[in-house]
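Sat 14:20. Reprocessing the chain from the morning session after the first attempt stalled halfway. Input below, unchanged.
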Amino acid sequence: MIGGAAPYAHVTALDLVVLAAYFAATMAVGFAVTRRSRSVAGFTAADRNLPGWLTGLSILGTFVSSITFLALPAKAFSSNWNPFVFSLSLPLATWAALRWFLPFYRRSGSVSAYEHLEHRFGPWARTYASLCYLLTQLARMGTVMYLMALPMSVLLGWDIRTVIVITGVSVTIYALAGGIVAVIYTDAFQTLVLMAGAVLCAGLMLFSLPGGTGQLLQVAGEQGKFSLGSLGSSLGEPTVWVVLLYGLTINLQNFGIDQNYIQRYIASKSDHEARKSVWLGGLTYVPLSAAFLFIGTALFAYYEAHPASLPAIYRGPERADFVFPWFIVSALPSGVTGLLIAAIFAAAMSTVSTSLNSSATVFLSDYYRRYVNPRATERQAMWLLRIVTVLWGAAGTGAAIAMTQVKGALDAWWTLAGIFGGGTLGLFLLGFFSTRTGNRAAQAGVASGVTLILWMTLSPRAASIPPAWRSPFHEFLIIVFGTAAILAVGLVFGRTASIRRQRKQRS
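Finished this time. Tokens:
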């Protein structure tokens, strides 16, 4: 066991049967649709023929990773509902997606989210954005599987590498066999599992409190557990305004330039179904995230009422991620425990499977067909998709295993996500809304944005940099300021170049 964690004797044979049934059902769903993914169009875009409710559940499953499943209850348990401000930005981001992004990609005819950047700014922009995406997905897969496996290995008594490998191999197999169709169908199934588990767990927790809902509200109110955070003007803390800006930027990036989401726009069978999927996926996350935060608050009230039930090793804020899994295996009835453990696996697997298929699609569209073999046959393209799916699955699993040697995996993820994100949303918005901005202006914007991102990410951690030269801003603002810098500098340079051209014409 890791770090002297508590024993796992509460996991029963029935729980393991439920968990095995979940894995069997997931694989069955994935293999049931293999016939629909025997072509490139089927493997990458589901032949553009899926209903909106299905792709919407898949979008929701992509939102809810194991980080969400464990981190939100942990945050509410140790602090308050500050992360819910992130969710409150979703309605606006969803509206923007429906107003601009979805129609744009549905009209483009391309399965790649980055091809249009080449038409707008040149090959470098397409390669830059797609490379940022691939690196982000690799880091994301590693982080999601590791953070899921860490508490599961402790509480199930399995070696952490075993949990990671089982997850990685299972996801790779059905993503390889069924392509995007298998990914979306299994995402939908896994999303229903995790939603059922979360709702059931929240209800059981209320019944476990001697005073029920009244006791929870009293304890949470006295401790400020429902607070959304500070309304102050500080940019060095996760105030309501900082988290709101961060959430809006992240969600615009998700809906606007993330291959995971773009493929679901394209996989829908009509514009109407695509809009339905975005509304379903985007807005359903708001109450679902509230349910996870409610679980964390209920956990706090539960262990206030039953303090002896929580081992001392899980009492520190740095161990809050283990509290929810510990409650699952120590307090829930047999069978329900298995369902909740399956839900945690589902949250991770839905995210990883999406990353696998989307990354393979990017490799095919933005590298193989662009630089290596523009005239690739259907058979060659299918072989490439399958090979990349396997290799990327192995790479993601390897990244998760490598995370076991990293102290502070979540901090490492925030660092890598900030750097690899590269402010690509700023580049996309620059090309989307400004017709005056040319290639050189875009390059200047990206250079300034990446420089700002690197300074904000690395300077607080570099002992050699004097304190006066370190970034005073909260890490949530890295992607916000990086995106804004690319957009602002690009617009200024574009405007300047336009004025120069006009002067030359007059002279």
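Confidence is low (pLDDT under 50) at residues 1-7.
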